[in-house]
Design a protein that fits this description.
This protein is of the alpha/beta class. The chain has helices spanning about 50, 55, 80-90, 105-115, 140-155, 245-250, 270-285, 305-315, 325-335, 340-350, and strands at about 5-10, 20-25, 30-35, 40, 60-65, 95-100, 120, 125-130, 165-170, 175, 180, 190, 200, 205-210, 225, 230-235, 255-260, 285-290, 315. A nine-stranded mixed β-sheet has the order 1-5-2-6-8-9-10-13-14, with helices on both faces. Strands 16-17-18-19 form a four-stranded parallel β-sheet, sandwiched between helices. Strands 3-4 form a two-stranded antiparallel sheet. The longest helix has 14 residues, at about 80-90. It binds aspartic acid (ASP).
Length: about 350
């Protein structure tokens, strides 16, 4: 995927905040009013300082990298995620931190996918975006970008980065990327992390929630997974779901796994045709990953009669994972391993803080 880069000279020869690579992928954030008209057009990153003069006053060595064809995040796909992972890997030694500017619609999917692809990450990767374009007076873009940059550069007393994981920064909160969810399409407070506390709260001062932040560990050496397998699907339960719908999803050719979106603490209908369809799929080595339709709380298979069968037949419990993290985790696990037994083990345990055990 082609891209262009521009470098913004730091205001001092040895910038106190180190170096950051800002990767622009597209989305609402990067829109400005065209010079004469009243129309919003994509941002030209060659003019970044003109549009956001505050950036030029930061004591950072900043390089901007823009995908040649910025995309609405509804067009994001596994190829884009792998490309982003490759860009980060290729620049990993050169930069202290990474900020990704991304549309909000699928930001939680991208953050989740990157958390798996960037194995042994030990530097900050912070995604942010905006609900209103950067060229609009009331835009949230400036605050989100400026604070994301500050969080990316934050160091502890030993001089190590405070954040060493993939996060989303939005509207004052820094969230673990694979725990986040877009919850709002209009409000500025667009993201939530119902099952894991925010890693930081950016008020007048930035307060870090240290016990919940993954520790810096110099023994972690970055490697990336370059293959994702998208032979996956969601199957969302609803009262009245028909056998035809369930059978047609479970019998998709080449299907390796489904995220079964259940009710409450992991419950589903106990109608015999449904139980038989699930059992047959598992016998064919289709992995079924049980994720709740509720944002908060967790799957507890066997707690109710309506989930006992799922436990007995070998459905994998997704505990408190989000649907976004569950589907990208499946793509990652199927892309990395070939043995269905390994798939089950990897799905059942946290790989990078995406679920609680
Ligand atoms: N449709 C846009 C996108 O996700 C919305 C946004 O950026 O907030 O790319």
């Amino acid at each position: 995927m082609p891209y262009t880069t521009i470098h913004i000279n730091p205001i001092s020869p040895e910038p106190t905040n180190g170096s950051v690579l800002v990767i622009y992928t597209g989305g609402t954030l990067g829109m400005v009013y065209e010079t004469k008209g009243r129309q919003l057009v994509p941002f030209d990153f060659q003019q970044i300082i003109e549009k956001v003069p505050e950036i030029g006053r930061l004591d950072f060595d900043i390089t901007f990298l823009s995908l040649e064809k910025p995309i609405d995040s509804s067009n994001v796909n596994p190829e884009v995620w792998i490309e982003l992972a490759k860009i980060i890997q290729a620049h990993y030694d050169q930069f202290d931190s990474f900020v990704i500017l991304h549309g909000t619609d699928t930001m939680a999917y991208t953050a989740s996918a990157l958390s798996f692809l960037l194995e042994n990450l030990n530097k900050p990767v912070i995604l942010t975006g905006a609900q209103l374009p950067i060229g609009v007076a009331r835009s949230d873009a400036r605050e989100n970008v400026m604070t994301a940059l500050e969080l990316a550069s934050a160091k502890n007393e030993e001089g190590h980065p405070i954040i060493t994981e993939v996060c989303i920064y939005f509207n004052s909160f820094l969230l673990r990327g694979n725990r986040a969810k877009k919850k709002e399409s209009s409000d500025f407070n667009a993201f939530d992390s119902a099952n894991y506390p925010p890693l930081a709260n950016a008020g007048v001062r930035i307060e870090y929630n240290t016990p919940f932040i993954r520790n810096y560990d110099p023994s972690r050496q970055l490697s990336i997974q370059e293959h994702l397998d998208n032979n996956v699907a969601f199957l969302k339960m609803f009262p009245g779901i028909s056998p035809q719908v369930v059978h047609s999803i479970l019998n998709i050719s080449g299907l390796k796994g489904i995220v079964l979106q259940t009710y409450g603490a992991g419950n589903a209908t106990t109608e015999p045709w449904f139980l038989e369809a699930i059992q047959k799929a598992i016998e064919r080595n289709v992995i079924i990953f049980n994720v709740s339709q509720c944002d908060g709380g967790r799957v507890s298979q066997g707690h109710y009669e309506t989930s006992k069968f799922l436990e007995e037949v070998g459905v994998v419990s997704g505990s408190d994972i989000t649907a976004e993290a569950a589907i990208t985790k499946m793509m990652y696990v199927f892309g990395k391993e070939h043995d269905p037994e390994k798939w089950r083990d990897m799905l059942a345990k946290p790989l990078c803080g995406e679920m609680s055990i």
